[in-house]
Amino acid sequence: MSTQVAIELKNITKTFGSVVANKDVNLTVNKGEILSILGENGSGKTTLMNMISGIYFPDHGQIFVDGKEVVIRSPKDAFDLKIGMIHQHFKLVDVFSAAENIVLGFDDGKYNLKKSTAKIQKILDRYGFELDLNKKIYQMSVSEKQTVEIVKVLYRGADILILDEPTAVLTPPETKKLFDVIRNMRNDNKSIIIITHKLNEVMEISDKVAVLRKGEYIGTVMTSETSESELTEMMVGKKISLNIDRSEPENPVDRLKVEHIDCINREGVNVLKDISFTARAGEILGIAGIAGSGQRELLEAIAGLQHLDDGQILYMNPKTGEVENLRDKTPMQIRDMGV
Q: What is the pTM for the complete model shown?
């Protein structure tokens, strides 16, 4: 791992009215290094990175790139300094192909998509990306869209990459592929900053961890010399037990039964197919899945806000003791029943 500094922040402060988002933050990232920015929600992680990428301008402090003090007033300034950020919410044109999105807005002389595609393919091969450059964005999975965003900043020559919660929308196999790519970029002397609050992933992928708490910089530790419990204590300011004692539910009775429901959305996509489960009184039922897996449509269907093409949703009303089919009810009626 290199000891040559790629980017350094000194006493960076950012406020929004009376809210202090970042206060006197100091941070150093070396070349060929993966740094995780760790903190609870609202700790100022994304705000800090938005200042590096030119979206926000710091109220106070200094930023150094390759040892020289710089002023970053816009994303263009950041790109000129070879800094690129991959945001949590992708900024792609759905009807364009992967290649068209990657070259969009980049002045590389005369527009020649065939020549640009060849250049993009070299980037894919170099770092181990898997991507069909002719595929339209609306046909892609979430992980493919994320790949387009990463390649887009690499195509623009980024040496410092910032990834905001990159695994939030990925399955475990997709996360493993992403981590392999990130390691390949590190081995190519890229500097990678990952914003996250997933401790297991921090321990797996990063070389160093910087911790923020309520907008303040707590410290930076080597990943190999720390533990999840120590990082948790740095995040929240006190010792926290990571073991959860789960009590048994008392008198669980069936309260809601979802039976074989199907839902086809306005675009003709089958977003829910043969979904069945039972939610019981006194229990907490978790619905797991990456973004876009149908969780929103499922909950909207239960609330009467989403049309269903098949199946039924049965509610055992504790007030009347009757079994009600929520598919026959309006959203107002469902709410009044206690759902």
A: 0.77
